[in-house]
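User: Here's a structure from my thesis project, written as structure tokens. My advisor, Dr. K., wants to see whether a designed sequence matches the one we expressed. Can you design one independently, without my sequence as a hint?
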């Protein structure tokens, strides 16, 4: 039945990462419980809450609910746990550190990594989206991304980045296809990029907690909303289903909050 569930997910055109996550969650449930029942599902939910953060718990519950939908046992679906909305952004690279990081990479000759960091921060791309960028997209100035719902999100590549990237690609004699590849001519994977970003962060004495691919997507959003306060446009650019998701970027980071308190509170 689990194998049929995987084929069901593939038929519904879910991403490979989502399918892998759903299958992992369902398989994990059956390791702990032999059969599906309301009692077992609730017990599993308690176990998740005791062992994982709310976001992970809800991801596992979403997978199980999808499995129950596939099994036509919707009445057994379990409720998500409430995620407490934070009043700050956590572990986001500062604009100053981003600029320093990018400049150091270029200065030391790590040009491809310079562009990886720049593309992530100037486009707001997710790491999976970054790896899909081709020379043809640089020339066009955008890349269209097809969402699970059949909608199209356009990822824009700013002119200043396009121009410099075009010069780099010409120098590297890359005229077609994916632009971020390893020495074997194969596309980088997300894990490799995450690992190397940490290596560079350590090299330049940056806070390892704020150097990861999604941090640069957060920086794109923060910089955009600081310079052009249009939350609806930002939601479209980020590919958020709900504008409520985008509102987090109206909040301050922890370091920004601390800096403001130190500046304001003098009494």
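Assistant: Designed independently from the structure alone:
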């Amino acid at each position: 039945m689990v194998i049929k569930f995987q084929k069901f997910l593939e038929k519904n055109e879910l991403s490979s990462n989502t399918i892998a996550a759903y299958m992992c969650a369902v398989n994990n449930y059956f390791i702990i419980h032999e059969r599906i029942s309301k009692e077992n599902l609730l017990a599993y939910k308690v176990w998740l809450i005791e062992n994982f953060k709310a976001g992970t718990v809800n991801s596992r519950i979403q997978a199980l609910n999808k499995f129950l939908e596939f099994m036509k046992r919707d009445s057994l679906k379990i409720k998500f746990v409430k995620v407490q909305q934070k009043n700050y952004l956590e572990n986001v690279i500062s604009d100053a550190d981003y600029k320093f990081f990018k400049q150091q990479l270029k200065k030391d000759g790590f040009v491809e990594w310079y562009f990886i960091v720049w593309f992530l921060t100037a486009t707001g791309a997710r790491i999976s989206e970054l790896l899909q960028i081709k020379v043809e997209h640089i020339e066009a100035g955008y890349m269209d991304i097809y969402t699970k719902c059949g909608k199209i999100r356009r990822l824009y590549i700013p002119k200043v980045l396009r121009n410099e990237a075009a010069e780099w690609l010409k120098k590297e004699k890359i005229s077609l296809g994916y632009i971020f590849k390893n020495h074997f001519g194969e596309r980088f994977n997300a894990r490799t990029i995450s690992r190397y970003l940490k290596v560079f962060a350590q090299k330049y004495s940056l806070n390892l907690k704020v150097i990861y691919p999604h941090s640069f997507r957060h920086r794109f959003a923060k910089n955009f909303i600081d310079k052009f306060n249009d939350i609806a446009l930002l939601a479209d650019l980020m590919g958020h289903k709900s504008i409520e998701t985008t509102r987090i970027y109206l909040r301050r980071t922890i370091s920004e909050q601390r800096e403001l308190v130190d500046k304001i509170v003098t009494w």
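When you compare it with your expressed construct, this may help: Residues 2-76 form a domain with the DNA polymerase; domain 1 fold (CATH 1.10.150.130).
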